[in-house]
Amino acid sequence: MTPERTPSILARLRAKFGGSSSRTKSLVAFVSSSFASRAVTIGCQLLQVPLVLHGVGTEGFGYWMTLTSISYMMNFADLGMGMGMQNKLAEAFARDEQANARRLFASTLAALGVIGLLLGVILCGAASFVDFSALFHLEMPTVQADARLAAIISLSLLCVGLPLGLAQRLAYSMQLGWWHNTAQAVAALLALAAIGAANFSGAGFLAYFLAGLLPTALVNGLLIYRLCARLNWRSWSRADLSIATVRPVLSLGAHFSVQQILNTVLYAAPPIIISTTLGAAAVTPYNLVQRLFNLFGVAQSGLMNGLWPIYSEAHARGDIAWIRKTLRRSFLATLAISVVPLAGGALFAVPIITLWVGSGSPMPAQSLIWFLFGWNASQFLQQPFWFLLAALSQIHRLTVLSLLAAVACAAGMLLLVHPFGAEGVVAGLLIGYVPLLLGGAIFTTFAYFRTTRHAPPLPGAGVAVGTSI
Predict the structure, then answer these.
(1) 407-426 per-position pLDDT tens digit
(2) Distance (Å) of CA 355 to CA 50, 359, 363, 371
(3) Could you tell me if 469 and 8 are in contact, meaning their C-beta atoms sit under 8 angstroms apart?
(4) Beta strands in 10-138 (DSSP E)
């Protein structure tokens, strides 16, 4: 007797999304454009680094990355309204409620515009009184001269970006995510071209800074215009603005805002802590290694995002056995496509970075490289469990652990940066992340499996499709 073969991931994808419907076409367009856009964006970012280092030096590059991290830290300033609007807008489009959708988008856009204006006045006003050269230990005269103006420009573009960031949310809710992916690739190419022009002309630090930031704002503005034109939203009136429409978006967005704050602590805080404690130049080796290691997560990200809807489908069918097997296989795949190659990247990080940016740039210490290996490997290993919990609507179980991890990581970084430098910052991240987020995700996943061990399958469960992976 031929043994029954386990249905494969690709077979389940075909079963769930098979056919030639517009939804399938949208999904395929999004996934393919996402990989292409990510490849273009990463390639452009890699090429930007030696150009900027050559043009403004180690300290200028480190200060640029510090200001970028500060902007990232302020992403929660939209109060999660963008993500909340995306969900509500998708529902309105699904019900063909064009008037409600128009009112929802216009009201959210106006609300974020007001928030951005008020925040801009406060932040730029405060920046006028800050000595950025002293705060970030800047020593190069060219960087010192533009330090305050660069910070004000960065903060201003952050505030302008609050309403312009709705370009992504509007495109996703229209099932035109590939438009946004394409726009991001175009913005990356424009930024690279502008930085190349600045390098060729011998421009100063501020020109490099503007070249790197302006294209994204311009492209997002153009994308909003094109999407609104497609919806025939060519003109607006006061009737399109409603405070009552914004209230449910704020309520839903509060949950997303918490996640944005947590991500801020984990990903944006380290460069800022390093810069304010050790100087902007110390950010450069950290950033070079982290940019290199980010490449090893691209394949896993594509795999996990593809598994998300398939997990949801299997959960709805009560196919817990398949979910268990797929989790195990996705974990092994993570080891094969991300963690093991990452170890190779750590072994050869110095020669790779030397080939990439040249021998004149500061090279990271081996201790920093291996600490960052541990940090990135921990994130990779957590992803199979996190995506599973998210797909099964069990992510709320990690909320308290995430809050505790954020506090532990922040405290660890601040306590360890003085005695151990950049390595101490990464060690602080590991102290909070490994036991609370990595360990918490694993524990929560197996706790969920224990509660479903004897649950009866739902109708339709256990139907095998296709061949095994």
Answers:
(1) 899 999 999 999 999 999 99
(2) 10, 8, 11, 22
(3) yes
(4) none
